[in-house]
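Whiteboard transcription, Tuesday session. T.W. wrote the structure tokens on the left side:
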């Protein structure tokens, strides 16, 4: 019997787990995939929105602003990449100025600090590569960019360090009321708990509707992206938005915390909750519309494209709280943009609700800080030489595009909640995320995985499940 079971190990599930781990309680996270950060949290814009877009008074508005405020402190505590680079929302003609002014007024009402409306000359001075057709822009200095993998993994690792249990490859199939709480049937057996936190992303409606007569409906909204090489990373310095429309904030152009340039996403509602395939039409739309905001985007520098799914709930707001007719069942549902920015506040809100209901007491020995994987490239030459002398694996470059060492990959595999697949290593170290997209480093990374995990190369996967990388009949030769 657990006190709390969290369904889903994305940023919201991990944020709730981390906040609850401050208290004396028996908690676990159930995740159907082989690792944390395998759903919406792995494929998104990685933007920490300032908070001017959401409707005043909505949970999106409240939690966006609170989450944005907390992100800097959280990044220091948990050691993940975050940069407050600011954003610009472009207005391309005078007729649209009332819409830009409305966005400014909404941001002020939402509590966003330091907002300003810039004229054409100020915009072009700040970002010379934006379109010459710009008339004005809303400038939000508090907006930022983050590594979504780093954020998600850091939250989960810290929760684990504070006693939260994680079960991977464990898919919840049914939820039933049982005694004091709920019984969760999975493909690995039954788990019982007093409270459930439903942080299941695009599947959150399915679990909510198992226990409540007050149904919710989530649509998977696909977004296509193009990622460009680091040579293009300085094309813009702020995150550049067009004025938002009914399907969201439109196509953005932004640097990433790792020095790339990212453009996207589209917004296409799909039936398939696993439908993360890109389309030629979607990618063409990304390139065309991004070019309307920013000039001379170096599209020949695209190194990969991908798509992610947003969990759009029909009510167009986050659903966070106890289901009316299902006591002990806490929803964190409908978490679409600005979900990344809001996740620290979502974790706080859900944890406070459960603490109040259960009367939990704080741990005297809560571990507030977490150290990420040591990156020799961030050290001085003297420090780097000392590290390599102590552990020669940090002098062996495995991924030349991103300059990732064997030492970093070993750390990624052997640390708490360590990587078990090629994508798991990639999300923790960036090995395989560079220009060649793992074309050269994958075999060497697989060798390290096989050695450190004591497994056959035939059992190594790209991303868990059946995504095996080596197939054949003569296993003794591999």
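and on the right, the sequence the group agreed on:
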């Amino acid at each position: 019997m657990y006190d709390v079971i969290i369904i889903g190990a994305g940023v919201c599930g991990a944020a709730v787990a981390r906040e609850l781990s401050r208290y004396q309680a028996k908690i676990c996270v159930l995740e159907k995939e082989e690792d944390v950060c395998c759903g919406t949290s792995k494929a998104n814009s990685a933007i920490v929105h300032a908070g001017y877009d959401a409707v005043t008074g909505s949970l999106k508005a409240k939690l966006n602003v609170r989450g944005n405020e907390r992100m800097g402190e959280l990044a220091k505590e948990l050691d993940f990449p975050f940069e407050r680079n600011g954003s610009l929302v472009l207005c391309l003609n005078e007729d649209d100025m009332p819409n830009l002014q409305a966005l400014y007024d909404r941001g002020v009402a939402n509590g966003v600090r330091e907002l300003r409306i810039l004229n054409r000359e100020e915009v072009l001075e700040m970002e010379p590569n934006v379109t010459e057709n710009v008339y004005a822009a809303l400038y939000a200095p508090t907006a930022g960019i983050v590594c979504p993998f780093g954020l998600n993994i850091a939250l989960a690792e810290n929760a684990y360090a504070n006693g939260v249990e994680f079960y991977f490859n464990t898919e919840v199939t049914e939820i039933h009321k049982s005694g004091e709480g709920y019984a969760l049937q999975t493909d690995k057996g039954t788990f019982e708990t007093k409270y459930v936190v439903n942080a299941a992303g695009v599947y959150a409606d399915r679990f909510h509707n198992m226990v409540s007569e007050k149904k919710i409906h989530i649509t998977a909204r696909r977004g296509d992206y193009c990622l460009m090489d680091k040579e293009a990373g300085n094309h813009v310095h702020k995150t550049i938005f067009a004025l938002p429309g009914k399907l969201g904030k439109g196509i953005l152009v932004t640097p990433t915390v790792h020095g790339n340039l990212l453009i996207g996403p589209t917004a296409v509602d799909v039936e398939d909750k696993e439908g993360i395939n890109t389309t030629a039409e979607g990618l063409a739309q990304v390139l065309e519309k991004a070019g309307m905001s920013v000039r001379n985007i170096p599209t020949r520098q695209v190194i990969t494209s991908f798509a992610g799914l947003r969990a759009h709930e029909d009510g167009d707001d986050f659903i966070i709280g106890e289901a009316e007719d299902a006591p002990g069942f806490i929803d964190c549902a409908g978490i679409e943009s600005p979900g990344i920015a809001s996740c620290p506040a979502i974790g706080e809100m859900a944890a406070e609700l459960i603490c109040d209901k259960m009367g939990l007491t704080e741990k005297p020995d809560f571990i507030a800080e977490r150290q990420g994987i040591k990156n020799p490239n961030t050290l001085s030459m003297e420090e780097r030489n000392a590290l390599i002398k102590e552990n020669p694996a940090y002098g062996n470059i495995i991924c030349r595009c991103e300059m990732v060492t064997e030492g970093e990959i070993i750390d990624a595999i052997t640390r708490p909640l360590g990587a078990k697949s090629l994508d798991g290593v990639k999300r923790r170290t960036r090995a395989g995320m560079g220009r060649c997209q793992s074309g050269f480093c994958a075999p060497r990374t697989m060798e390290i995985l096989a050695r450190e995990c004591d497994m056959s190369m035939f059992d190594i996967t790209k991303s868990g499940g059946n995504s095996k990388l080596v197939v054949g009949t003569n296993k003794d030769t591999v």
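Someone added at the bottom: DSSP finds twelve helices and 22 strands in the chain.
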